[in-house]
Queue: 4 jobs
Job 1
Amino acid sequence: MDAASLLLGLLLGALLATAVTLGVVALLARRRPTDSGLEPVHESLDHLHRLLAGIERARATAHGELREQMGTVGLTSAQLQQETAALVTALRTPHVRGRWGEVQLRRVVELAGLLEHCDFVEQPSSTNDEGAGVRPDLVVTLADGRQVVVDAKVPFTGYIEAVQATDPAVRDQRVAMHARQLRAHVDALAARRYPTAFRPAAPFTVLFVPSDGFLITALEAEPGLLEHGFSRDVVLATPSTLLALLRTVAYSWRQERLARDADQVLEVGRKLHARLSTLSGHITRLGSALGTTMTRFNETVGSYERSVLTAARRFDDLGIAEQPVPSPAPLEATVRTLRPEPGDGTDAVVLDGEDRFDAGRRYDDGGRDGTHG
């Protein structure tokens, strides 16, 4: 309609311009009766005619496009109305409504970071303390081994009828009915005694409401609905509140895993420390044995040189042996010992380079004082 109004205004402006031009032409005709003076006016009129024809064609094209778009909008609106009606009809069916709530619940727990069969189990079967079989939609396991039962089967037929109602009085009536249905479901959920069927379990049951609007509308008609649920050990949770609850559960799981890993690291550290202490003892004894071995070797070499090689060199002096007997050299290696770090009072050990066993020096001293051999 805006494009048509614009084209109409342009057309009126063009007609007004034509009238003004014709008036000018009439005045010029009175002053100039010759035909040669009207040629510029004729050209202007032709140009104006072509301009008006182009404007008319553009208006017709725009009007056709606008009509086509309006037809498309009408068709889309009709399809949307049909789909909405089909969705409303489907949501009125109990099993479809329950399935939708279960899908919403699963999306929330996955978004919270919980893993199936590890942190939660879907639709487990059990028996309460009265012998009745129960089957909740979800059971979440806490870090301390306790379980939280979640049920997602919430009636909201009254809510749908309240949304579709055009009369305010009818809407208020349907909202009140929706609140009564939700209250009755809280009572029915409390009567199932889910916490007694899953032990150890938290002393309450979470009633998952698939949409925040469902709970807000019910609270408009009955503000004490939450308190009624708490008194029956039933917690009403929307996707936002349940997500916060489950994220807290997932965080507690992570902290439990970190604490368990820290205990394992501490235990491994204790075992490693004990083994290092044992290894340090072995290294100390091995170093002592090596020092003793080198001492005995150098003592043997000194005795060999004094007692055996002296007689063997006489064969060399007489020219009997083809070549002289070689003399073994003493070992000059250093054995480092392990000592605790001075001044820290801990069990740590370090390698002390100053405390070492010089086997060659002991051999030389022994050779000089004549204690060996």
Note: The longest helix spans residues 239-307.
Job 2
Amino acid sequence: MTDTRSTAKAEAPGTPAGRSRRPRGRPLLYTSYAQDMALLDTRAKKVWTGLLVLLALSLSVVLADRSLEVLAGAYVLAIGAIGLNIVTGYAGQVSLGHAFFVAIGAYTAAAVSGPRGGEHLGFGLAEIWIWLPAAGLVAALFGVLVAPLATRLRGLYLAVVTLGLVFLGEHVFKEWDHLTGGPGVGREAAVPQLFGLPLDQDGAATKEQQLYVLMLVLLIAFAVAARNLARSRIGRAFSAIRDRDIAAAVIGVPLTRYKVLAFGVSSFYAGCAGALFYSISGYVEPGSFSLLLSVQFIAMVLIGGVATVSGAIAGALFISLLQPITRSLPELLPIVSADTTVTPNVFQVETVLYGLLIILFLVFEPRGLFGIWIRVRAYWKSWPFSY
């Protein structure tokens, strides 16, 4: 009887044409295709997402500047993790060369933003709306150039080829002093300037507060774009290739086109993340783009949750907030050194810890932190019943 009244209410004459009102108390009963495809398909998701964004914004006036700087870096790493999730999680193409594309973006932004005629290569365009898209597009161009290999290789072979990009990039960046400043020296990163207002200087708000809000806004924009991409025809083609590329080709999915597109989009995200991350510290050095950085991004994706945007964000926050703890190990454990020339040092411990976390999550919780959240949510939705 209740269902009949709810349906009648949903089809009330006052309802605008082409729209359907979801029956009260039935949040997952869709009466239109638009409701089923909505980004936030229930009122609870809309409310909690809004509250989460407001909470994140409120942290800019609550936390200390050092904490805001760490969170701003975590948001930028989340953008890079989303990019890796697109090519690995959604499209199923294994990539260990994410650090290479991050480096391309960082140095492109530094060159575009750098002063003309200086010691290093620079074009004097300091506006963020210029160097940020440029960093993403140049990285995407390199991704498209590498992508044809994905059409011929798969699995371990593709992973080894993309891993080679990291070592190739390390060599080129260490030798190209005019662009990078050389190993151990480095150069100034991109200047975060928006419409003539430098965001790396204290004003009405501290520079940490300004950069924190900027990175949060950009993370939301990149996350929404990635989520919409995953829900589109392109995202469904990515999923078909990931699940079974031969079957996808049989039903008419052009494998080459979508694999190239996946690498291009992923590299664009990585380039933007590289440009933004080093603009926070104001300094970029060739030794930063090692295999460890690629392992960090893989850990973010696997720990957070493969093929989920929210999982990539959760994984990036987890790894970023774990790093300050590992960097303080020399104070707690004298056996661990902060000097990279001594074994064991803190960076070796980080590498081992990332590998251990990846193994543990793959064995005990393959869906990562997102899977844990799904299980907790399902428990409370069915509570107090056990089914």
Note: The CA atoms of residues 305 and 368 lie 4 Å apart.
Job 3
Amino acid sequence: MSDFASFPNTRMRRSRASAWSRKMVSETMLSPADLIWPLFITEGETFEDPIPALPGVSRWTVDLIVSKAAEAIELGIPCIALFPNTQADRRSDDGAEALNPDNLMCRAIRAIKTAHGDAIGVLTDVALDPYTAHGQDGLIDRNGHVLNDETVAVLVDQAVNQAEAGADIIAPSDMMDGRIGAIRKALEMNGHPNVQIMSYAAKYASAFYGPFRDAVGSRGLLKGDKKGYQMDPANSDEALREVAMDIAEGADSVMVKPGLPYLDIIRRVKDRFDIPVFAYQVSGEYAMIEAAAAAGAGDRDALVLETLTAFKRAGCSGILSYHAAHAAHLLRSKS
């Protein structure tokens, strides 16, 4: 450290003494434009189905999803992410409902785009776990092993199906090898060159996904685990290889999932690659904040904003968070 940076010539507390000064020298700025709001869709009409494992989060029927999109627009949130809770009688071992142009996901996409057009972006999940009877993200053989190449062929058709419905961003969360290149080629060939791909490039086999699996109805169905295709939480260099491959195959942006336990991965990816990096603050992270606030262990508003700011500080261009709408309200009240 230089000689001039010694006490009392330098008092680090000077710039912290007043709110206006702290704001002026803040290195990381968080705004509603940094947020993507994940929303769960369910069948029916004008019906909200609260999710016990995610206090404050519900499944919404298509007509109410359109209203939630309007709320996001009003709050300045630029994009929503959709996840369907497919009915049990429409699930199958081959996940065929994912290819139905009138499935829950596609109906929600069309309804949002009809109502709001380009006023908001729609990000759609590409994976088979919301559609399979066994809860895995892909097709399985008789031994329960998830088949990579056979799954990729279905994911390509699923992605085109969603693009045809009006999706703006295709987000493959399956972690099959080679699926980004195959999906990019299919989008180009089917007249969707401007549909973005946000790859779940570094998705870990995490213990933080439980409430999400409740929300999409796959937890009780899942046979085995997903360690054969999702990443080992102990690995860091491997994440860089995954990201490099997905960029080379045509990803426009990449995602690290989960979020807070993997801030080191976010920073490494951001430092290595010249591409937008997103994080998913997953269901288990959300539930822990809510539980801490309910137990009086911390102030909910402060916990929400501090964790979201941590993602931005680590290098994220944006964050998928179930707290998105609440955070946007807080940020607007502070501005």
Note: The beta strands are 35-41, 48-50, 58-60, 79-84, 121-126, 169-172, 196-203, 253-257, 277-281, 318-321.
Job 4
Amino acid sequence: MPDNFPTRRKVLQTAGLAASLVAMPSLHAQAAWPSKPVRFVVPFAPGGTSEIVARSVAAELSKQLGQSVYVENKPGGAGTVAMQEVAKSAPDGHTIILGHVGTLAVNPYMLKNQPYDVNKDFIPVTLLAKVPNVFVIHPDVPAKNFQEFVAYAKKNPGQLNYGSAGNASAGHLAMEYLKLVTGMFITHIPYRGTGPQLTDLLSGRTQASSAGMPALGAHIRSGKLRAIAVGTQQRISHLPDVPTVAEMGYKDFETSQWYGILAPAGTPADVVKRLQEESLKALKSSAVTERFASDNAVGGGGPPAEFAAFIAREQKIWSDIVKRANIKAD
């Protein structure tokens, strides 16, 4: 046999080496994530609960992953601007977005012709937090409690304005739901974020709002805003004297803000799994648990399938409310 004629052993060895070389890039890519900073997009302006939740978790993820996880606020179009951009991003785990009740459960029924499908163009990673909605009014409003506020609004239809972080924001949805069950009429003034709308509320240019404790707590404690009700089924520990809407005679009323992580469709399953596991670890850190406790927020962290099922339930609830309350993009 000629010296240069390949033996069976040599052929097998060469084939094995080739297979290893083919597999190596894939294994390396999986092990390398994240190989660069991770962009965490928040579809609302700075100053609201969404940003507070995102930054709390991002800070811990940066420590755990060895790469910066930086928050980028990108408001506009009731969250659709950011959602569309992330949907078109490379599905490699280096661009993720903060999902929200408005962008995931309301926009599909409130907005026509969205340039993406929330159920097909994104992968649910994990639920991060549920935050109670708190209903507040400016102290100049001649109402000391929830019943007096509803009575005053009914006597003066259309004369009161409420601000929100924008169309389909949690505050917009909560107030429209409240209007539906109470029968009062208050004009909606959408802003580009919780921060801008709170500026006008604190100055008295608007009279009411609904947001989470992270954004409202300091203003309630200082007396600059008056809390009149909470949207959860039970009272919250930081506002023990403030009743729930349900106990005011509106049985089964419940609304809360919720936030989670989503990635573009096509993101590798192993990256999604690790991102969920690292997010759960971040949610259990003392920094996040203490921050969430101070805001009466309830942490999540469950697997992707659990978050997907949660989104589906919320879509069923809010599709009905959008129709009944005739919620539209103002």
Note: The first strand starts at residue 38 and ends at 42.
